[in-house]
Amino acid sequence: MSEVRIAGTGLTPFGNVPERTGRDLFAQASAAAFEDSGVPRDDVEAVFYGNFMGELAEHQGHQGPLMAEAAGVRAPATRYESACASSGAAIRDAVVRIRNGETDVALVGGAERMTNLGTAGATEALAIAADDLWEVRAGMTFPGAYALMAQAYFSEYGGGREELAHVAVKNHENALTNEKAQYQSAITVEDVLEAPQVSSPLGLYDSCPISDGAAAIVLTSETYAEEHDLDAPVAITGSGQGGDRMALHDREYLARSPAAREAGEEAYADAGIDATDVDLAEVHDCFTIAEVLALEALDIEPIGEGISAARDGRTTADGETPINLSGGLKAKGHPVGATGASQIAEVATLLSGEHPNSEYVAEATTGVAHNAGGTVASATVHVLEEVGRP
Amino acid sequence: MSEVRIAGTGLTPFGNVPERTGRDLFAQASAAAFEDSGVPRDDVEAVFYGNFMGELAEHQGHQGPLMAEAAGVRAPATRYESACASSGAAIRDAVVRIRNGETDVALVGGAERMTNLGTAGATEALAIAADDLWEVRAGMTFPGAYALMAQAYFSEYGGGREELAHVAVKNHENALTNEKAQYQSAITVEDVLEAPQVSSPLGLYDSCPISDGAAAIVLTSETYAEEHDLDAPVAITGSGQGGDRMALHDREYLARSPAAREAGEEAYADAGIDATDVDLAEVHDCFTIAEVLALEALDIEPIGEGISAARDGRTTADGETPINLSGGLKAKGHPVGATGASQIAEVATLLSGEHPNSEYVAEATTGVAHNAGGTVASATVHVLEEVGRP
């Protein structure tokens, strides 16, 4: 089984650029990834691309070959769609393909154009990640669904809006050094608590923004990285995926994410680590409560204790296990098809020392990326380790 | 590397059932596949699901977990979208996952609900498999694109509407015994030539119908099949995928399908066969000209000679290499997300002797399934071999 190396990563700025197409964004991200990697485009043997709402936002399906073309690559390409975990799913299959020896060099990533739909239009488009017959037609949106999850959490384990506010404050703080973040502005707990309510108990600053953006990664086999003397010190050593019932009303608990737990357990076992080995993580904080649920699903925090992690400084930049040093979905932005790949890119650069926030994790060797779809009906978890040059 | 066995297959009837949802269709197909396989649902470790136009036809994305649920399976699930090759792409990754030893039992398949959109609506939805900016906005539809390919073929290699008509006649003839086919009616060359024109030179009977339907397959590792004494004599021994530029105007030739050739060469090499070993094939005949191009891309016919294959009886049921014994997309129907999986199911039952048309291929041991997306910007090819009970 070949080890999978991260040869290069590229991100566009995340933000509000409604005039840019998905292919334009992905061309930019992939060009940056190729430049960072030193791998020639002609060596790419397969493209694994994540996108969620291209049909609705750009009247464009079949984006695999389109995005291979945008990246200047001539290779078979597939589009993976797993809602907000689309590029996480793409990476999962890329890892398997490289390990299996079928592919030596893969381009993976994703893009999403969203802001051209407007906030209401994008919220409606996002809703197709929920069950149309049983949830969406009853009026459910994702802010509403995560609000239900937060209410259930508060009622089962305690905590409240103030603890959640610390998650948002922390992630905005982390984004201050991230030039590609949608928001590079500090906020206070008061700002979060006083912001307009979106769906009780969640307010505007508990919610990630609507974003345009793309992320790309060049993955290679260890053999290829060795033969080409690549500067690729970080490997993907663990990969896991979990699934759950689609609709919230079919879940046993609203305040837990078994799909993320399953994905995490599989990824940890695959990498031969456990949660205590995790030095840092990028988790899917589409809403503040989602970060709390992710920490517990990944065993970084015990059940019922994730709520206080940001407030008590366990997950801040100088804490025990810094979470979302990139700014997270909350402050970095969430172009949904790009998010999973962007998380892997952030963890890789944090570990290799090339990230502006690497100083907080100078001793770190092991990082985790957690990507979730819908109300975590889908989840992927990847473990990255700094293993040194091949 | 573990061999991949086909443990069971299930198809819904293909046709015009606008009131049925995709999940309803996939529940039926997967139930049939589980019954055919004897594999308990609880043993499934991953679901690979193909769907193309769920966002437009059902306002439903994130269909992976939804379809796992419809199938009664609790396992991680991903939706693969590669236009009309969506379930071909799903199977490609399932094969890799099983070979890699990560998964012993996979549910693969796809579904599509289309007729609820009406013929014009479905044609418009299908168009998102082409390049929206450069083709669709200029008025291109798939009948138009394949008509261009047919014109280019006639002009380069000769032949005409009459030769194409024989493809349609043959496929309708083959479907007469297929109870699940959308059309079980014989047609004549005159019928085809006199049918209303869709896009010159293609007429109504050169075109596959708009269809609803689902297909499901239970795949297992050879080890699992052996340990559970499954009646699974057919293995997927070769898998390949190809890609091309998205838009027709970027192609070197309109009358060739290099992505299908690439996929075929990869699949043949993977299985250790060549084209002369192919006893039968299901190819992606969305239009009659598409069958001709597929035969040539798969080296079943030399370049420029595929046009006469049906007319001269080389690809009829009693011919040298029977093509589309199921009736093909033309007569069996083409619920796009289901098509790739349905082709594998047909080849498997043809080889195992359980297909109503198996009598024509009693000595056959090797079959091929060819699934194409768009104007063959994507293609997957799988080789199936009857290798005996595990």
Automatic annotation (TrEMBL), chains A, B:
Residue intervals of the Thiolase C-terminal domain: 240-385
InterPro entries in alphabetical order: Thiolase, Thiolase-like, Thiolase_C_2, Thiolase_N
Single GO biological process annotation from the record: isoprenoid biosynthetic process
Domain Thiolase N-terminal positions: 5-222
Domain of life: Archaea
Lipoprotein is among the record's keywords: no
Example of a GO MF term: acyltransferase activity, transferring groups other than amino-acyl groups
Protein name: 3-ketoacyl-CoA thiolase
Keywords: Isoprene biosynthesis
